[in-house]
Amino acid sequence: MTRPLRDPLHSDLLALAQEAALRAGELLRDGRPADLAVAATKSSPIDVVTEMDIAAEKLITDLISGHRPDDGFLGEEGASSEGTSGIRWVIDPLDGTVNYLYGLPTWAVSIAAEQDGETVVGVVAAPMRGETYQAVRGAGAWATGAWEGERALACRPAPPLEQALVSTGFSYVADARAQQAAIAARLIPLVRDIRRSGSAAIDLCDVAAGHLDGYYERGLNPWDYAAGDLVAREAGALTGGRPGERLSRDLAIAAPPGVFEPLQGLLEDFGV
Ligand code: IPD
Ligand code: CA
Ligand code: CA
């Protein structure tokens, strides 16, 4: 489904992102081999890639470049080109690969379109939830679901931090994980509870949908957060990194106003 948008370019980019995310989601959901194995490892032996990550990225880049041959790409599985149109696609073909490998349902296809460096369209398809989250810059965020049709996304009203349900994630590198776990251990007595879903893209959309009061993580890559960041912001969340900085690999925080500020301050106090 596509909302009427003022900018026809954004309409086209949204329609293409939706189609690519839907098709890749179907490939991943219906084509998962029963004996799915690890095809390669990346930053550490537990940072895995399957044949399905690679197949899904190829499907997405083939589909998009078939329609828009002058666009650039940044994809987790290697797609990398500059393009000449001013549009660049930032793609995580399978966010939550470890969940997917184990048959857990929390995984997503994440596709963002940047125009002159700013994300203007974000689509996160979560096939095992039967839901797709999407946003267009300045036009809001909404979810389309197999059961519910379309609904606008809006963050939960901010609770006091001690009642906030906060999600986080951990790097694949052992030393970084140990530091992240130490920060989480300091945070957990100060909030309602902590979650670790295994998909950064879904965490950001869960902030947007009001399923979480906040999310933070260090060490993400642009393909993990590009689409989900826009979905969260368009649903009313604040997103950022360290005080005064944008969300980045160094630190990503997303939460409604009222949770964002104290969470950011606490993480800074902890020396995150
Ligand atoms: C990972 C997931 C996970 C996050 C990691 C990411 P992948 O992406 O988003 O939740 O904690 O930092 O690398 O490897 O499943 O695409
Ligand atoms: Ca990812
Ligand atoms: Ca991935």
Helical content band: 25-40%
Q: How far is it from the N-terminal to the C-terminal residue, by CA?
A: 40 Å
At CATH level 3, the topology of the largest domain is: Fructose-1,6-Bisphosphatase, Chain A, domain 1
Ligand inventory reads: D-MYO-inositol-1-phosphate, calcium ion
User: Approximately what portion of the residues adopt beta-strand conformation?
Assistant: 25-35%
Please tell me the CATH architecture of the largest domain by its name.
2-Layer Sandwich
- N-to-C SSE string, H for helix and E for strand: HEEHEEEHEEEEEEHEHEHEEH
CA radius of gyration: 18 Å
Find the CATH superfamily of the largest domain. Answer: Fructose-1,6-Bisphosphatase, subunit A, domain 1
> Can you give the mean pLDDT?
95
3D shape: globular
Count of DSSP-assigned helices: 7
Describe the main β-sheet briefly: 8 strands, mixed
Name of the CATH first level of the largest domain: Alpha Beta
How many domain units?
Answer: 2
- Strand order of the main beta sheet, please? 4-3-5-6-7-8-9-10
